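Sorry, explain these tokens?

***
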Amino acid sequence: MWANDKIGLINLSQFSFRVHGGYSSTLPDLTYQREHERDSLRFEEHPTGDTFKPENAVFYQNTLLLCLRFSGWGLAQLATDLDPPTDEAGCTGTHMLQPSDGYCAGNQSQLCRYQFDGCSKGAVQTSGVQNVLSINDLSGLQGLKPFDVTGDPSKKVRIDLLEKNGFKPLLLGENHLVWKDGEPIDPFVLAVLVDGSDQKQQPTLLCSREIYNENKRLIKMTPYRRLRCGRAPFDFDGVQNIPKWATQNFSKKAAELISSQEYPKNYLITRVLHLQQALESTIDKATKATKMLLYLLHYGHSISGIPNSPNTTPILDVIQKYTDLSCGITASNNRNETNSRWLIKYTSGIVDVDALSDFIFGELYIPLTLLVLRISPFNYFTVGHSTRASTTH
């Protein structure tokens, strides 16, 4: 038995999951799968609604939606060290146990029997057709900029992930122990904040919501519940496809570097010059760093935990000012009802494993409840559309 409680018994079930075909090129054990798939959707956050409304997968219907677009740079600290081949077989890293190897948890004599080239093959495809989460049948009512909310061009409305119980959000894979390449983020407590009047002040929380987890960390869920949570990236893309609206947070220099045909080598050379280190001879060998700078990972899922939403926020106040619509963030105790969940699509890319940064952009959809409709003689509003979330090519 492992002494580290973080691994403990929970990962014995993960090990058994692998032995029976989980994260494997071999077909899964269907008997094992049927036995363990019961209640596997308990913590699902699937963006289409098909899993909890199989007969009528309307995610939003006859409702107002607040859409918040965001982009910016985040902290991305990735492990870059390789695992020693003498580690317990199939327990960590890319030396994964295959079903044909049998059950040998903790057996160091069961070593990797093939040449390892030092680079994970990866679980996210790197060619083919890109999938993107799209929201259909929406009619725009009012567009706002952060300045409309803050009243100060130096202040911003921010989207951030909060820590929970002392755990900061991270890409959770435990070095391939509980997830393959392309890990989900956990904990996932999404917050909308606005800058305070003083730069020294912490941003003010407008609203927040956590994914549904019954206070369980992803690592504490069973393998099949983790597998079917719907929070991992569903496709890849290239940096050339970052939308123009998202690049507004590129500096002028970064925009020039990333749009160049020499990218990402010019990006690495610029860093070398900036650090005044003679490292140009090593750049061509930095295969992993180069690849991480080229690709994007698309995520998209719902957020259906209990929302932390005050009755009014500066954003809702501004909406009322411009539209005469008095709205509140929809509150529902039933996460499976239409119009109850938040929906988020976000993309991570330009991951710099040395500078510990990545570029994030996306859209957050929050359903609103109409509280008061004030109609002036000059205004007429029509509210009501069926809205579906779908993954399209």
